[in-house]
Specification:
486 residues; mainly alpha; 1% strand
Length: 486
């Protein structure tokens, strides 16, 4: 089941919310757990057993680590056992096919018989719920959160359906208080509805339309320079609107249930360095990698060379986390290399002024990286890079022109205008003192309130676009979120 489906919008969500608000505070976490398991089992019931097993395993390990004491040797042994089993499960389901295929490529080159392995199906969301489970037992070991004895709350945290499939990557220590006591107000529910609708519009109206352009350009056997750059730019926008759209919907659903999740995107394409980009893109993952991998490797505490090495390795493993393919590994290495270079050069990663040259160079690096991230294999990536940087024919190929529609072109233009508008607005708001910013409503001396008309009109526009998006969803074919494959 996905958020952008009629089954979710008109069956699952209204039934769940109705039961949720009719039930008492005492039973809401249990209801959330049951609903989340139904949501997950809608895809495949058999993998629900694996999901529940991972949850029970980390709950038990957390108790053992907590009982052994903060940062003690026995606690460390329990932690290593827990993390080892978690990574073994993730490694088998996510990388077994890749490992056997790579090994067979070497074996067959020597004329030997290849190994045979039944194709391993990847459970959806496994990367996210494994990482969240690992962060929990590490936090218990570090003393950042006590081991919980409430199995229902812990299982609900791992399974909570708004973020289950594609994040944000949440941490138990950040949500435990909200599981114990969270507020449910009309304002929070309204904010959640608006946020959900915004994400839905991003996904259905923009990302799904741009997906057609990107898919066609990357499938061309002999793309021109124009074809390749069009595909790269289309995918750059598609990925952002698709993934940030999912995150908006997840955050909105959380608000409807009284939870407030961390933000996952902060206008990343306005960044003026790769370091700044990773403070704005997939924030929940980048902070997870920093706190549980980069710092564990030594961070910047063991000399300059080791700092560069740790940055590179963190991003290399972050790329591998996305999938079992050399394209993801090289994409991670690309970003790791630039993070190390920026650290070595002392690049200002918290700019107070907008520098068009730095922005353009950073955006170019990001787009170039997305090409290999999107490519099915190294051959496709090489074909796209060859066309992009041959600077030959900037005209679109006849085959591409025949497929391209006016709506797709208009959507691409609107997407980049939207990115520019909100990106620059976010940059200058960050650089402007809070007291200088206008407030959405002003309370007068007599107690009356001047309502921000712009805000009201914006919500009306969002509602109308959401209704149009629902109609578009009903007319189009199934389109899963891009990050479901990770």
């Amino acid at each position: 089941m996905v958020f952008s489906s009629n089954v979710f919008l008109f069956l699952f969500l209204p039934i769940f919310l109705g039961l949720y608000y009719l039930s008492g505070q005492r039973y809401r976490n249990l209801l959330l757990l049951v609903a989340s398991y139904i949501f997950y089992a809608w895809w495949r019931v058999d993998f629900l057993a694996l999901f529940a097993g991972v949850t029970l395993w980390n709950y038990w390990i957390g108790l053992k680590v907590g009982a052994a004491g903060v940062r003690t040797k026995p606690a460390q042994r329990w932690l290593l056992l827990g993390v080892g089993v978690d990574l073994a499960i993730l490694g088998y389901f996510k990388y077994a096919n890749f490992g056997v295929d790579s090994l067979n490529a070497i074996v067959t080159s020597f004329g030997l018989e290849p190994f045979i392995l039944t194709h391993v199906l990847l459970p959806i969301g496994i990367s996210f719920y494994i990482f969240e489970s690992i962060s929990y037992i590490i936090d218990v070991y570090r003393g950042d959160t006590p081991a919980t004895r409430n199995l229902i709350d812990f299982a609900a945290f791992v399974a909570i359906f708004p973020h289950l499939i594609a994040g944000p990557v949440l941490r138990f220590k950040d949500l435990v208080e909200q599981f114990n006591n969270r507020t449910h107000t009309l304002d929070k529910f309204s904010e959640g509805c608006t946020r959900f609708m915004q994400g839905f519009i991003k996904k259905v109206f923009i990302a799904d339309t741009l997906a057609v352009i990107a898919d066609h350009c990357f499938a061309l056997q002999a793309p021109t320079t124009g074809d390749a750059w069009l595909g790269a730019l289309a995918y750059t926008a598609q990925l952002y609107f698709d993934f940030s759209g999912y995150s908006d919907m997840a955050i909105g659903l959380g608000l409807m249930m009284g939870f407030r999740f961390m933000e996952n995107f902060k206008q990343p394409y306005i960044s003026q360095s790769i370091t700044e980009f990773w403070r704005r893109w997939h924030i929940s993952l980048s902070t997870w990698l920093r706190d549980y991998l980069y710092i564990t490797l030594g961070g910047n505490r063991k000399g300059t060379f080791n700092t560069y090495r740790n940055l590179f390795l963190t991003m290399l493993l972050g790329g591998l986390w996305h999938g079992a393919n050399f394209t993801y590994i090289l994409w991670g290495a690309w970003h790791g290399m630039w993070l190390a270079i920026e650290r070595a050069l002392g690049i200002d990663t918290n700019p107070q002024r907008f520098n068009p040259v730095k922005w353009a160079f950073t955006f170019l690096l990001v787009v170039v990286g997305w090409v290999i991230f999107r490519a099915e294999n190294l051959h496709v990536a090489g074909r796209m890079y060859g066309a992009m940087f041959s600077f030959g024919d900037w005209q679109l190929s006849e085959l591409n022109r025949a497929q391209l529609t006016g709506l797709q072109v208009a959507t691409l233009v609107i997407a980049y205008l939207t990115l520019a508008w909100f990106g620059l607005r976010d940059f200058y708001r960050t650089a402007t003192p809070a007291a200088a910013l206008p407030t959405p409503a002003q309370v007068n001396a007599d107690g009356s309130v001047d309502v921000d008309v712009t805000r009201v009109l914006t919500r009306v526009l969002v509602l109308l676009l959401f209704a149009a998006s629902v109609l578009k969803l009903s007319a189009q074919s199934y389109s899963p979120f891009l990050y479901f494959q990770f």
